[in-house]
Specification:
The complex is a heterodimer of chains A (244) and B (249).
Chain A: H1 3-18, H2 21-41, H3 46-78, H4 81-86, H5 92-119, H6 129-151, H7 157-174, H8 186-194, H9 197-210, H10 215-237
Chain B: E1 11-20, E2 23-33, E3 38-42, H1 49-57, E4 64-69, E5 72-73, E6 83-86, H2 98-109, H3 113-122, H4 138-150, E7 156-160, H5 168-183, E8 187-192, H6 195-198, E9 203-208, E10 211-216, H7 218-225, H8 230-240
Parallel strand pairs in B: 3-8, 3-9, 6-7, 7-8
Antiparallel strand pairs in B: 1-2, 1-4, 4-5, 9-10
Classes of the chains: A mainly alpha (244), B alpha/beta (249).
Chain lengths: 244, 249
């Protein structure tokens, strides 16, 4: 891997985003608006908001980054820029990690805004807000990596968007947001054990329960980042230099 | 052929067969392209031109046969620095400016920002350098794509219909640029379906239904067909080619 090419690619992806201000505004503002919405829904019941608001800090970045990256990678494929990249000297991982870094940087801003709002004016008790934001970013990184991997299996934008209900929704349903994982049937619990988003949400739950970082929280973060790295490497094997 | 010069050909294709799905797109093409030459690949749309060019660049999965470029198998990692490819649809980022595109591809080629700016000058896009590529006309976009291929200073440059829809003046300039590059030693293969453009090339490859019908200099093709008009010459070639299918889609 070349650090220079990876950095150039990350800078290029960010430049593309800079020319698309509406997308940037939605990426930054939407999670904050949605969390405010949830806060208003749980008017006064701060215990419920503490639990759900915290989970949402892990969910929103995952969902938005999954969608944005899978569509932008698909665009690379359909416009021929991906094929062009593959005829050039750089390695495939330079491209994918460049994407990963660029969108993680956006996720950092997104998480900072959402966490500051939630833990400040909305009074969410997240233990340590900086740690909550960190977990939120790792969840976004997971979304980026899975989005890049899934885009390989989509030929059209319609298919790409359908990966949202196929890949994202099951993880959302089983991550413990709706029903605590301990109360799930054992087979559902088993499925939830192998879904990576579960660990991002669990890390946030740990933080909420203990008010500080725990060993389990760091283990969760390590699992999420490990799955993200594996997905990026798997995504690079789906980029074929030669096609039919 | 051109063996007398002693330099090995830049591109050597032997019995190249390509299938797409169940359809045979190229049916056993053999030819060689001399180093430092400007060669036109002619043929109607759907004849297999793009597939042939993709095989030279090494991005096309082939069924059988070999394609050797600069002494290595097409698509070999060592060739990625030496072979430039401009696809028919401009493969550049529409949401970046011309300069941002050139600078990114310069980074991928391992050359600096100065080379990127020079490539923009070379294709005559300096006035549009800071405009979004998506706001440019089709012809300008394809020149951005060309600029991004030129900045790698490739030894072999493969261009798929780079002059479609261009203003005649720009088209003239581009062909002049190709001739210059060839003179300085770059081997250039350009596909086109416009016959009069081909007259400027040293060598013509004419393909139809995935088969090579002619591989010669424009002069030799004209004299063999007994007509000055290349379009007419190719018509006569097709007529004399027994296997021609009369069905037209």
């Amino acid at each position: 891997m070349s650090a220079a090419i990876t950095a150039s690619t990350a800078a290029r992806v960010l430049r593309q985003l800079r020319h698309d201000r509406r997308t940037v505004a939605m990426l930054i503002v939407l999670p904050a608006l949605l969390i405010t919405n949830v806060w208003a829904m749980y008017d006064g019941r701060s215990a419920s908001f503490d639990r759900i608001g915290l989970d949402l800090l892990g969910l929103f970045p995952f969902i938005t980054m999954f969608l944005v990256t899978s569509v932008s990678m698909l665009r690379e494929r359909t416009t021929g820029t991906l094929e062009r990249f593959l005829t050039l000297p750089p390695r495939k991982t330079d491209l994918l990690f460049g994407y990963g870094i660029a969108f993680s940087a956006v996720a950092l801003v997104q998480a900072a805004v959402a966490t500051t709002l939630a833990c400040g004016p909305l009074g969410l008790d997240a233990g340590q807000p900086v740690l909550a934001a960190t977990v939120s970013v790792t969840s976004a990184v997971l979304g980026v990596a899975l989005g890049l991997l899934c885009s390989a299996f989509a030929r059209t934008e319609f298919q790409a968007v359908q990966f949202m209900p196929a890949i994202v929704l099951p993880q959302m349903l089983l991550c413990g947001l709706f029903v605590p994982r301990a109360d799930m049937a054992s087979w559902l619990h088993g499925i939830s054990d192998v879904l990576p988003l579960t660990y991002a949400v669990d890390a946030l739950t740990q933080l909420g329960q203990h008010g500080h970082a725990t060993g389990v929280m760091w283990r969760d973060v390590a699992i999420v980042l490990g799955v993200a790295a594996a997905a990026l490497v798997a995504a690079s094997t789906t980029l074929r230099r030669r096609s039919a | 052929m051109k063996g007398s010069t002693g330099t090995p050909p830049a591109i050597e294709v032997a019995d190249l067969v390509v299938h797409r799905g169940h359809k045979q797109v190229l049916g056993g093409i053999s030819c060689s392209v001399p180093a430092g030459s400007l060669t036109a690949l002619l043929g109607p749309s759907g004849s297999g031109k793009t597939t042939f060019l993709r095989a030279i660049v090494g991005v096309q999965r082939v069924s059988s046969g070999t394609v050797t470029v600069l002494g290595a198998s097409a698509g070999a990692p060592a060739l990625r620095k030496r072979v430039g490819y401009v696809t028919q649809a401009p493969s550049v980022y529409l949401d970046l400016t011309v300069r941002e595109n050139a600078r990114y591809f310069a980074a991928l080629h391992g050359v600096g920002a100065a080379a990127a700016d020079q490539a923009i000058v070379d294709v005559g896009l300096t006035p549009a350098a800071d405009q979004l590529t998506g706001n440019l006309s089709g012809g300008q976009r394809s020149r951005v794509s060309l600029a991004c291929a030129l900045l790698g200073r490739p030894d072999v440059l493969v261009l798929d219909e780079p002059t479609v829809g261009l203003d005649p003046v720009v088209r003239q300039e581009l062909w002049g640029r190709f001739a210059e590059l060839a003179k300085s030693g770059t081997t250039i293969v350009v596909s086109s379906h416009v016959m009069d453009e081909a007259a400027r090339c040293e060598r013509l490859l004419f393909i139809r239904d995935g088969r090579l019908l002619a591989d010669d200099t424009p002069a030799a093709i004209r004299s063999a067909a007994g007509t000055w008009d290349l379009e007419e010459a190719f018509l006569r070639l097709i007529m004399s080619d027994g296997t021609t299918t009369t069905a037209v889609a």
